[in-house]
Amino acid sequence: MRVAATTLVAAREVREAARSRWFVLTAACFLVLSLALSLLGLAGARRAGLAGFDRTTASVLNLMLVFVPLVTLSLGGLGIAGELEDQSLSMLLAQPVTRAEVYAGKYVGLLAAVWAAILAGFGATGIVVGTTAGGDVRAFCGVVALALLLAAATLAVGTLLSVALRARARVVGAAFAVWLLLVYVSDLGTIGLAVARSLAPGQVFVLALLNPVQQARVLGTLALTDRLDVLGPVGMFGLDRFGAAGLVAVLGAALLALAVVPLAAGYALFRKMVVP
Amino acid sequence: MIEALDLRLAIDGRPILDGVSFHVARGESVALVGANGSGKTSILRCLLGLVPFAGRAVIDGHDVVGEPVAARARLGYVPQKAAFGDVRAGEALRFAARLRGAGAGGIPGLLQLVGLAAHAEARVRTFSGGMQQRLALAVALLGDPPLLLLDEPSAGLDQEGQELLVGIVARLRTGRRTLLLASHRREEVGALTDRVLRVDGGRLVPGAERCAQVIALEKRRGGRS
User: Domain range for residue B136?
Assistant: First the structure.
């Protein structure tokens, strides 16, 4: 795979994402909500005597867990399916470029665009909080890094949906369903399954490892506190079993795996795809 | 220049091509003719590596599957319906030029050639169908590839658009440039090609290879092609 060709495709993706109204709108919403949360958090923190970064990080963590999968699943989903539908993919693949370069370039370009939006949102928040209050900067930076990793994982899932379903309408529906599943339904499903099947804590932990949002939630909470009642059952089990550093390593590795596995599965489909 | 050996293609279990073999020499202009759905476009898609096929396709000595970059660097492609996404014409050309390692120096000349010099910074989505096809031709000519693959390039264009596009391609015919055109328009085939391969049901029709000028003559006399 040639780096120059991959970079060219990636740069084109960044430009197209910047022109996408949906992407610009969600990135702007993330920026505005991050700033609003940090300002509200600061106002509350002053009254409660809390440090600024801690409170803001907790607020932005929850925002990030909802927004990042929403943006990346839809953006990744539309990436290849959109070009397949308008037939611009065949013109791209008719150029002297390999499918691996196109696939990697599209993923890297979209990821760069999402990362830029995340860093803009968190950066603005960091500047506001950093200049007006103190607190644990490391925890804040940890959550930023976590948002970038979560974006990589959920964008990979979106890309897999795009290659597997191949049509805009199907991909948008599936991306929304997966978002609901990861962000809201998964927790309820895991609890229901645990109760109905009397699952052991270890089994519940393994189920949680399949959901990147759940992993990010535990990792983000762990960056803020190691209080067991805040971490929830998955975090409690993991902390008890692996210790704090071990739990970070296990969940971080699982999150990375959830970026690599869907991406590889998507490429396996894309390599053999019939391009109209 | 083009060597197609026993091309076989099935999509979702449905056979599309069934053992297509042909050879196009350097400098030749050849037409693939046949009814809609006969397999003309699928042959081009095999040569471009856009579909997973059985058999072997070689472009200027480079296997389409084994050396896709080298093979596609030697050809330019104009599809039936060009699509560029939400970009400006110049941007689409600069992107393709960089992918082809062609440099941007030739872009103004190509825009001039296809009659789009005044539209370099216009958004492609505002272009008419004919303008988009001419832009696709400019993209295909970046780096001056020795082979042009044209897939019904004037389909869907009005008479004026068809004549304009065919006129430009006709001027591009030189001794060293090879042309493979998929079309069912006899005027286009007669104007642009020297030899015709008839495709029917995913196969080349044996003995149906004819001089394109004969087809054009038949057309003028009202005969069947």
Answer: 84-144
Distance CA A208, CA A229 (A): 17
Q: B85 touching A, CB under 8 A?
A: yes
Q: How far apart are CA A172 and CA A158, in angstroms?
A: 10
For residue B79, being part of any structural domain is answered with no
A127-156 pLDDT tens trace: 877 777 666 778 888 888 999 999 999 999
Q: Does A19 touch chain B (CB under 8 A)?
A: yes
Q: What is the CA radius of gyration of chain B?
A: 17
Cβ–Cβ gap B45/A87 under 8 Å: no
By C-alpha distance, which of B200, B198, B202, B203 is closest to B214? Answer: B198
- Indicate whether B13 and B105 sit together in one domain: no
- Nearest chain B Cα to A272, which residue? B52
Residues of A in contact with B98 (CB under 8 A): 8
The pLDDT tens digits of the residues spanning A169-206 come to 999 999 999 999 998 887 777 778 878 888 887 888 88
Query: How many independent structural domains does chain B possess?
Result: 2
Nearest residue on chain A to B49, alpha-carbon basis: A94
Question: Higher confidence at residue A227 or residue B58?
Answer: B58
Q: Looking at this predicted complex, what is its ipTM?
A: 0.88
Kindly state whether residues B180 and B137 are assigned to the same domain. Answer: no
